[in-house]
Write a structure and sequence with these properties.
Largest sheet: 7 strands, antiparallel
Helix content: 10-25%
Number of strands: 10
Structural class: alpha+beta
Radius of gyration: 17 Å
Strand content: 25-35%
């Protein structure tokens, strides 16, 4: 670990997988890819936990620490060797268990589009196929999170793909105000 960030070198990835822990410090932006151990020109990384295991991710933001458990972390580069976004996949084999995640996204992360979401009930697994929903963004933590929710009504599974957005365009006064009030920059 360096400066509060896990390192995504081969050795660092082994340490993340063996410890089941990853750390990010998003209190300062922009974030150079080197802060996460990547060389210049890197394409980022996709890190998957070993089968049946999770990685506990701790993200320090300007307004506190956000924690999530995941089986997959993806780092995506942007312009000038900066981190564009970090993706965290949060899976619920039973969609009804995702009700607490929806509440957390609204209350802790600031997703205004989820504030009045209907609870998921047993009727979710109705055989109607797959669905994708993008409930905008939240910035209550001082760091911008976006989300994509993938639902499978055949299996009853739901996956939240959170993206920690680090590009400057999400941190202008107008963008921050828009995200806080409408979920859109």
């Amino acid at each position: 670990m360096a400066n509060g960030n896990s390192q995504f070198t081969p050795e660092g990835i082994d340490a993340i997988k063996s410890s089941g822990k990853a750390f990010f410090d998003f209190t300062e932006r922009p974030m150079d890819m080197s802060a996460l151990g990547f060389p210049a020109g890197s394409d980022g990384a996709l890190v998957a936990a070993d089968s049946g295991k999770l990685i506990n991710v701790s993200m320090t933001t300007p307004n506190g620490v956000v924690e999530m458990s995941t089986d997959t972390i993806r780092i995506r580069p942007g312009a000038d060797n900066m981190v564009d976004h970090v993706d965290i996949f949060v899976n619920y084999p039973e969609a009804q268990d995702a009700n607490r995640e929806i509440k957390r996204a609204a209350d802790e992360l600031g997703f205004v589009m989820l504030q009045d979401a209907e609870p998921i009930d047993a009727d979710f697994k109705d055989g109607s196929g797959k669905e994708q929903w993008i409930p905008g963004m939240g910035n209550k933590t001082g760091t911008v999170f976006s989300a994509e929710i993938l639902s499978n009504h055949d299996t009853g599974r739901m996956t939240f793909v959170y993206s920690v957005q680090l590009a400057d365009k999400y941190y202008t006064p107008d963008a921050e105000e828009g995200i806080a009030s409408t979920g859109r920059p």
